Amino acid sequence: MLFNSFEFLIFFPIVFILYWFVFSKSYRNQNLLILIASYVFYGWWSWKFLGLLALNTIIDFLYGFGVNSDNKRKSKLFLWLSIINNLGILAVFKYYDFFAVQFQHLFEGFGVHLNPTLLNLTLPVGISFYTFHGMSYVFDIYYKRQKPISNFIDYAVFVSFFPLLVAGPIERANHLLPQVQTFRSFNFRNAVYGCRLILWGMFKKIVIADSLAIVVDLIYSDFSGQGATTLIMGSIAFSFQIYADFSGYSDIALGTAKLLGFELLSNFKFPYFSRDIAEFWRRWHISLSSWFRDYLYIPLGGSKDGKYKAIRNTFIIFIVSGFWHGASWNFILWGFIHACGFLPLLLLGKNRKNLGNVAAESSKIPSFKELFQMLSTFAFVTFAWIFFRIKDFNDALLFIKRIFVNLVEDPGQLLHKPGGILAVLYIVPVIVIDWFLRRDERNLRTVKNPVLRAVIYIGMGTLILLGLFKGSSESSFIYFQF
Fold first, then answer.
1. For position 385, what pLDDT does the model report?
2. 219 and 85 part of one domain
3. What is the pTM of this model?
């Protein structure tokens, strides 16, 4: 089931009413309802993969007890069994065909012709997200951050909680499980905040992202016939499309969870106002980047064992992060590009320079230095997005080559009116609103005048409904494919 669908607009109010008015006497009853609702939510997409979700849940629930053993060898054994099982499931559904084809090409280079059997399996939506949920639970038990829980329903809710089931944020056991195991009472203020987040998330997805998608698809589908300015505009439009799409999903997830009495981890903190690549990754898909930091980068030694290992570990997590997004060389290259952008900061010891503050912290507008830093970081990120958007490496190079060749042959290209100029109408509001909210991504401050506030809400709601009727209800979120 999609958030941006009429089915969800019916499904969630039913769950909300049952949750607070029928099952509210016991948090265990509420958890049972959430679990049933989560499986209905997921099964709406394809009931065939409910068994895989259940199997994944059962495996890590049981491994948690083994990992908790005082016997170090037994604990490590169950940890590795969990890793092998989880990554094995991912390998079969997400990576087997990729590696089979790559091995075929490798052996053909030596004159050996192989005919590998390809599985051609449908990738279960959200598999990368709920797999990482389960692994974080086992890791946290191993590192003594979490005790195994005995109630399977509670654990199953943690893994399959429907607001975050298919596209995150990737929750930690020690953050979400205590909320699952605690009585929850309705909080009107949190509910209002939740509704605002849902409204803003829906607006970003349906009105902004889906409108930009039309522009992006037109430009990228025929880039060979486009001018440099249009290609640059298309690249910028995709940067904001993927941001509005994914952060919109995260806002809806956070808002939906708030209405049920849960606080989820923030996944975005205005990443396009970052002043360097390190800051960008502290603000973009935060739950994933922090997951790799805590469960891969630090266990590998982090940056404590000298520059060489710090560089090695940095490239590992960025390349693995790219590969997490999909079994394709373009995602690996995308991760590699970001590692290269991060490297100078690491070598100069500036990778934690912009930690804990925001651009124009104590003023309304950024300084020229901050503006230059934000624009250059955005330009780098946008350049890397080209390899994320175009799966074929040669096509991506042709796309970039066409931009530079056109500019060399005709520098006046930059003055030409680009195709997709209407994308600016969708991009500018996101920039302006995000700038005013940049100090607190949760606090969607509204105008004080109640009449004007009502007009804004009604206007946004109307645009959302128009988008749904125009077909946005059939538009999946970009990150569902991962």
1. 96
2. no
3. 0.92
